[in-house]
Write a structure and sequence with these properties.
Layout (H helix, E strand, L loop, with lengths): L1 E4 L24 H18 L2 E5 L5 E8 L5 H17 L5 E8 L6 H6 L5 E2 L8 H11 L6 E7 L9 H10 L3 E5 L7 E7 L3 E2 L4 E8 L7 E7 L4 E4 L11 E7 L5 E11 L8 E12 L2 E7 L5 H9 L3 E5 L16 E5 L8 H14 L2 E5 L14 H5 L2 E3 L3 E4 L3 E8 L7 H15 L6 E7 L3 E9 L3 H10 L9 H12 L5 E8 L8 H10 L3 E7 L6 H9 L1 E7 L14 E4 L3 E6 L1 E3 L17 E5 L1 E3 L4 E6 L5 E8 L2 E6 L17 H12 L6 E8 L2 E8 L8 E6 L5 E5 L2 E4 L2 E7 L6 E7 L6 E5 L19 H8 L3 E3 L20 E4 L1 H21 L9
Length: 847
């Protein structure tokens, strides 16, 4: 209890109260002065707004009783005993409230009647939401009051959003005493995880986590659809470690749309009459098959044979007919397959359209074949060749011959200023054309010859650049000895080509350059000259280049630097298609193989020799030789995969007995295919609110998303309105019943392929019977964090004394004292008037 002021600054006026004894005139009687001062003081106090603060003292006790379906009969009975003990413990003056999670009919009648009037029975459809119960318990204790929360539960909560309520209790000093009923030991399916993208005809995998296995008996897991058709059945599972096991089940969806799944945990005994220990229900979304545009030629009925191999997961359209000039690839296909079709039947316009679709729209390209494909099919330097993850080495092999270059640079005084810099630039440009296996040397002449850089590998770029940078223009011009020095040095070098390059401003001495130049040419050493500076002509340098069977160049300024020709690359034809028996080695990540044994891939009988490009992923290669047979890489927004043999031809004739061939080829095609739905959707649920995000990419640029909710029976219901939050990011929000399963069909406003989306009811929580004990609320930690006590209630216990709550100030009550002070001031004023008129006491002056 305390007195406070709403406007305390008015109290400063009390300092002027003593002045009333002297103003407006001096007080002559003591009683008059006291009444006047007291009246003014009361008026000032009234203006300051005094208030009286008091708190509500009784302790608040709130009980949370768990009566959810996760409790066994024994646990319920123990909880009822604890409830009765709590009712006996609370004092008569304490304020109480009870929150029951579950069904009210589960409580004994005598206990139900004895509950406080302010009890609350939670909606049984909401499950055991400890987060909601703790939040309600915290609100039942008024702000500033002392209180205690008692929780009787097994800790299995259908959601994990109790953090905010616990933090508020810790801040307010509300202890939570917990009576831990323990977790009922039983086998249950606690989680089902499906592949993020399920498609018709493609192998789908779901992983089911089973909790509560014991060593005495095992279980089996059966996966079925809404019509009770069995999709998968696991082998017998037994206890592993902590009694938890994850089992992967695979099946092939048959239809596009929403597929309800039922997981039954069965007793291990065989037969249809096996006991069902637990059931888990969910729904998954299945997307439509991938659309493949097949373009072949050499393989007869290639599309039909490929369709049979790939199965129902692909809609194969045969586009193998003659392609007219100007005809482009059709739109709407996730994958284009060019199979053993020569380049002569693939117009440039068609190749350009395929390349643009892969690069910009995310379409996949599967390029395969043998004798009519790759370089042997005429694709050398074509648009498709630039996209492939392999180089064509079977057609021609480029050979870069070795070269030795001796550069003679004039560093005489006449080369001062801009000319020496031009000479350096010409030198660097010439050396840049050399490869690491070439050799280079630098000779400078300035009245004498000097090796600025002895003959060495052209790979020593730092040493070469330093040698060029050190050159300065000084001395006279003596060229002849420098040419001889370079000539004798090149005679001792073993390379395919030899070249002397003279760089000067043409101010050279008179000498017999013709004899020397012709002798150099006879030894198969080319002699070229470069005139630097603004001179328009130099006959002497032209003659030297002519006698030496080289070339004459002119570099008048830095914008006219010559491209020197030092050597000529050659090519050699190599074998094209390799015939024989070639064992293979499987490589690459597990995503390309799945359950297929890569060591069981049979040998092939023919392939096109290629070389993997840097950055490409090699998935199959020839054993020993290292030549790739299957290679893939990302190309723009799409993916390009190359198969260097015929998938349904002579090269893979030995794969007819490979039982996993169709499954593996379908996996390779699926990973290569693009996603032309145009939008990637995600659904987020939080209590009653749903947020749908759509991110636009690839071919959907300029297209707006659309979506519709499905009503009962998968009938199209209300549309979803999206708002644009960024150029390629859209969002929609609406309210939905947390218990309702949300089904959406989404796409784009341009008729893009539909995306099927499903968000199970209460996507952020667990069903009552599927709560994972690993995600349960730790009751001991909760009690310790709030300053309460934890009691192991798995055995017979009684409710003890409540933990000491922090001394709360109570619920504050405010009483305004200002009006009373104003009345007091009025009364004192009237008393002063009466005193002055009727009281005839002695004045201060007379006394």
């Amino acid at each position: 209890m305390a007195i406070d002021f709403l406007r305390p600054l008015f109290l400063l006026l009390l300092l002027v109260v003593p002045g009333l004894w002297f103003w407006p005139r001096r007080v002559e009687r003591l009683g008059h002065g006291l009444l006047r001062s007291a009246g003014m003081a009361a008026l000032i106090v009234a203006m300051a707004g005094p208030v009286w603060l008091s708190s509500d003292g009784p302790l608040h006790q709130v009980l949370i009783l768990d009566q959810s379906d996760s409790l066994s009969a024994e646990q319920r009975s123990r909880a009822h005993q604890l409830l009765a003990g709590w009712q006996q413990r609370v004092g008569r003056n304490e304020r109480t409230a009870v929150i029951v999670m579950g069904k009210d009919e589960d409580l004994p009648v005598d206990l139900a009647k004895a509950l406080p009037e302010r009890s609350w029975l939670q909606d049984p459809l909401s499950g055991s939401s400890l987060a909601t119960a703790l939040a309600m318990a915290e609100r039942r204790i008024p702000e500033g009051s002392a209180g205690v929360v008692t929780l009787i539960s097994d800790g299995l909560a259908t959601d994990r959003r109790w953090g905010p309520a616990v933090q508020r209790m810790i801040r307010r000093g509300i202890p939570v005493e917990t009576y831990d009923l323990g977790v009922q030991s039983r086998v249950r399916a606690v989680r089902l995880t499906a592949d993020p993208l399920l498609r018709v005809g493609h192998t789908a995998r779901v992983t089911v986590e089973i909790e509560g296995l014991d060593a005495a008996s095992g279980v089996r897991v059966r996966l079925s659809d809404s019509s009770a058709r069995e999709l998968a059945l696991s082998a017998s599972l037994t206890k592993a470690g902590d009694g938890r096991v994850a089992v992967a089940l695979e099946f092939v969806p048959r239809e596009t749309g929403f597929l309800p799944l039922r997981v039954d945990v069965l007793a291990a005994e065989a037969g249809d009459a096996a006991e069902v220990l637990d059931t888990y229900l969910t729904t998954v979304a299945v997307q439509s098959p991938l659309r493949l545009w097949y373009v072949g030629d050499r393989m007869r009925q290639g599309a039909d044979r490929l369709r049979e191999l790939l199965g129902a997961g692909f809609e194969v359209t045969d586009g193998s007919g003659p392609q007219r000039a100007g005809e482009s690839a059709p739109a709407g296909y996730e994958l284009v397959m060019v199979d053993d079709r020569p380049a002569a039947l693939m117009p440039e316009e068609l190749q350009a359209r395929i390349a643009a679709s892969v690069r910009h729209d995310g379409v996949g390209l599967l390029f395969s074949g043998g004798k009519a494909s790759f370089g042997t099919g005429g694709y050398e330097d074509s648009t498709l060749a630039e996209m492939l993850p392999v180089d064509f080495v079977q057609r021609t092999e480029k050979r870069d011959p070795s070269t030795a270059l001796a550069v003679i640079i004039d560093t005489s005084g006449s080369m001062g200023g801009n000319r020496i810099e031009l000479a350096k630039q010409v030198t660097r440009l010439a050396i840049r054309r050399l490869k690491a296996h070439d050799r280079v040397g630098l000779v400078e002449f300035y009245g004498n010859k000097h090796w600025a850089l002895p003959m060495q590998s052209a790979a020593n770029k730092i040493a070469i650049d330093r040698a060029i940078g050190r050159m300065q223009a000084l001395g006279g011009t003596v060229l002849y000895p420098a040419i001889e020095e370079a000539y004798y040095a090149l005679k001792n070098v073993d390379t395919r080509y030899k070249h002397i390059l003279i760089i000067t401003d043409a101010g050279v001495e008179n000498a017999d350059y013709e004899s020397l130049s012709r002798r150099i040419a006879r030894d198969k050493i080319a002699l070229s000259t470069v005139l630097v500076g603004s001179q328009a002509h130099s006959q002497s340098l032209i003659d030297i280049a002519s006698w030496g069977r080289g070339r004459f160049y002119s570099a008048s300024d830095r914008y006219a630097l010559p491209e020197t020709v030092l050597k000529q690359a050659t090519t050699m034809n190599l074998p094209a298609y390799k015939n024989g028996r070639f064992p293979l080695v499987g490589r690459g990540g597990p995503g390309w193989w799945g359950e297929v044994d890569r060591a069981a891939v049979p040998a092939i009988f023919g392939y096109v020799e290629t070389q993997a490009r840097p950055g490409a992923e090699v998935l199959l290669e020839v054993e020993g030789g290292g030549h790739p047979v299957l290679s893939s890489w990302q190309y723009g927004l799409g993916r390009v995969t190359a198969l260097m043999t015929e998938p349904v031809g002579d090269g893979t004739a030995g794969w007819g007995g490979w039982t996993d061939y169709g499954q593996w080829l379908a996996r390779v095609a699926a990973r290569t295919a693009g996603d032309l739905r145009g939008f990637r959707y995600s659904v987020h649920r939080d209590d009653h609110r749903v947020r749908i995000e759509a991110r636009r990419y690839g071919a959907a640029l300029g297209v707006a998303p659309r979506a519709a909710r499905l009503a009962a029976g998968d009938r199209e219901g209300s549309p979803v309105e999206f708002r644009q939050v960024s150029p390629d990011h859209f969002m929609a929000e609406f309210v939905i019943d947390p218990q309702e399963e949300l089904r959406l069909v989404a796409g784009g406003d341009a008729g893009d392929a539909s995306t099927w989306l499903v968000a199970p009811a209460r996507a952020d929580v667990s069903a009552e019977h599927q709560v994972d004990p690993l995600t349960a609320l730790d009751l001991a930690t909760l009690a310790r964090a709030t300053g309460g006590t934890w009691v192991d209630a798995t055995r017979e216990v009684t409710v003890g004394a409540a933990p000491a709550a922090r001394a709360g100030s109570g619920a504050l009550t405010l009483l305004e004292l200002g009006p009373f002070a104003a009345l007091l001031a009025l009364a004192l004023y009237l008393a002063e008037l009466a005193f002055r008129r009727r009281f005839r006491g002695p004045s201060l002056s007379s006394s």
